[in-house]
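Researcher: Structure prediction, please.
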Amino acid sequence: MDKLFDSEFRLLEVLWDVEPPINSTQLVALCKERLDWNKSTPYTVLRKLCQKGAAKNENAQVTP
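Model: Predicted structure follows.
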């Protein structure tokens, strides 16, 4: 797996703190609350994590 950037690791920490799977909309809300990210940032970071194989997003259900 490719090296994770800080933002990717921070999103994974949020995922690890919840019982998977989590709805992507709920993940965005958690990222807003915990990381003060705007709406598009979690989706962008999640897409990169999925490309690296560190997370899955199937039918808006996200798992690490």
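Model: The mean pLDDT is 95.
Researcher: Thanks, that helps.
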